[in-house]
Structures are given as C-alpha cells and as structure tokens.
Predict the 3D structure of the following.
Amino acid sequence: MKKIFKSNQIAITSLAIMIAVAGYLNFTKSEAPSTASYENAEESLDTIDTMDISDGDSLISEKVDDEIPTEETETIGDAVLTQAQVGEYVAGAKMEREQTRSKTRDSLNEIIENESLSDSEKEDAVAKLTKLAEVIEKEAAAEQLLDTKGYGDSVVSIGEDSVDVVLNYNELSQADRAQIEDIVTRKTGCTVSQIVISRMNVSGS
C-alpha cells in the first residue's frame, strides 16, 4: 500500500517547525550530545528504516493464526470462542499494537530531538511519524464505523500491501461483505482486492 498513504506536506512542515523551535530551546539549555548518543540515534534510525511502519499490526495477525483459526472465505473456523473470550482477545490485541507503536514513536522522537543528526535524517523521522499517525487514524475510523454498523469487536490492521480485518462474526453474507469492504475502502483508502477479512467463530454462551 505504498501509494495509499501519501505524506501530508502541511503537517510535516508544521511539525518540523515545532521540532526546530523545541530543539533550539533544548540546545541552549544543555550540552552537545556525546559520541555514544550520536551512534545510538543513528542505530535507531537504521532500525526504523528497515521496519514496516505497521509492524504492530503483525502481532494481531499472529494472534489470529495462533489462537483463532479463521478463513478468508465464508467458511467458519473450527475453534469456538465465548463472547467474553472475544472481548479479551480484541482488547489485548489492540493494547499490544499500541504498545509496539508507542515504542516506535519514542524512537522517532529521539531521532528528531537529537542535535547530532542531520536535517535529512530528522526529516525522514518526521515523515515516518506522520505516516504512523495517519495509519492509526484510519484504522480507528474504520473500526468505529464498523462498530456503528453492527460489526463490533473489529480489529483493522493496515499493512504495506493489505488491510486485515478481524471480525466478531460467525457468518458473513454477500451483503455483509460488501458493506464491510465499502467501509474499509472509504476509511483507509485501500482497494477491495487488498482487504483480507477473517472471522472469529463465537458460541452463543
């Protein structure tokens, strides 16, 4: 989905200005960073360069694969969960995703605030931070609208080439699938072919 998430130039410029002001004030109150600090920041940037901005979403996919056998078609998986278990799973998956992304934000902010790094490295970090914020906003908007339309306990995960949608729903009709795809495409900007829908098999207990 490299073409889906275009950087918002106005947001990046505004953020860069705020960063510059904060950096200047911080610089006047402290000494220049040590060589070790510079090396650590460079290492962080290298790590972030090689990671997918949506790495936190892979945790959700792994939990689905490990705990809840699901299908991308209309076929229901073998595992059956209670409603309480579904709630716990969804809450845990979203919390784990947020924790992973929080660490990514912290690493990017450290790079942005490091006076030893070049402007281009800082601009790259700002762009990644902006993209991450856009992904989080789109996922939340899709999940909220899905819930409003009756598809509760959903988890929407935007990746580079696909959008995974995990739903608390036993059976999906063609009308359901069409509505879900419409919601996700409108809120995330992806195409229908990029959407992968997985369903949790929930018992009536």
